[in-house]
Design goal:
The structure is a single chain. The chain is of the alpha/beta class. The protein folds into two domains: 175 residues, 3-Layer(aba) Sandwich (Rossmann fold); 200 residues, Rossmann fold. 49% of the residues lie in helices and 16% in strands. It has 18 helices and 13 strands. The chain has a seven-stranded parallel beta sheet, with helices on both faces. The relative contact order is 0.11.
Length: 386
Amino acid sequence: MKYFLIAGEASGDLHAANLMRAIKEEDAEAEFQYYGGDLMQREAEGLLVHYKTIAYMGIIPVLKHLPQILRGMKNCKDAILNWRPDCVILVDYPGFNLDIAKFVHSCGICPVYYYISPKIWAWKEHRIHSIRRYIDRLFSILPFEVDFFKRHNYDISYVGNPTVDEVAAFRETYTETLPAFAAKHGLEAEKSIIALLSGSRRQEIKDNLRRMVLAAQPFVKDGYQIVVAGAPSITDDYYTQVLDRLPDEVVRPTILHNATYELLSHSKAALVTSGTATLETALFNVPQVVCYYIVMGRFFSLLRQLVLKVKYISLVNLVCDREVVTELVAHEMNVPNVQQHLADILPGGRHREKMLQDYRDLSDRLGAPGAPQRAAHEIVELLRQH
């Protein structure tokens, strides 16, 4: 059968690639065309457009590149019409993908499946109307989404969380010792590591990284070293530009690219921006403080109460439906606050053991590995019935 997939950013490329691999196990004759990235391209031929040419976030970047985005959308619709796939599989990226879903549905070409739901439970809840009309089946990776969509009279399939698969697969095979890891990356083997995961976008890094470094700095004298997990699309030059604004006496952290899971394997604690990184950190059993600075923070805190529909911003707390990890958002994300909460989760800290216990509840709620396989099996079965 013929599968047309659309992933609009790096995380979508990863999840879509794993789904493609699972589909091939279910359907030996599977053919693919897709908007995606390098990881999807490793799984199969059929890349039409790389997501980097259409993936823009924020009002200004979107307006600046609007002709390019609209051209990409038109070309995508033309490709679907010309190829006539057996299904279209959308992966997150709702602004682009829901428009494609509407087009495919209106043309009656094939079923539309959504893998990794748009986060309409947080904001833009009105998108439920588009999902009801244009999506034939939604495959969720967050357990609390099942109840949310039920309240809107829309049944979905919870297939498990692919981050569980990715972390489990890594931990099964990773055997590198701390001395070997330290030697490979120019770190000090005798010093414990505080990891900083400061986001994947430039603005996040600009807003959060310096504050994270300053908060962790007092612990350097206690025998810790600070290591930053470099984002895939951000160069060392940009990190240097951000860190050069620190006072001269501050010890600069080491930046490690393409080694986030290795870094978490050897870290004692972490400062993390929101997103999938909070889940990854928890699944590695690393106590964390969630940090997300926003300019005009007090105004945002007020606006958040009016716009956001959820109590938490971290996936750890959302999945557990309670505060497992401390969230310091907007004006609360300041150096003294972060420093205090970091001390509480380092070895000997008063909240460390409780957080590690709560992580076990998180794992239970997320379920066992196998999310891509479960989604692929259901998709192929639905197509065979169709």
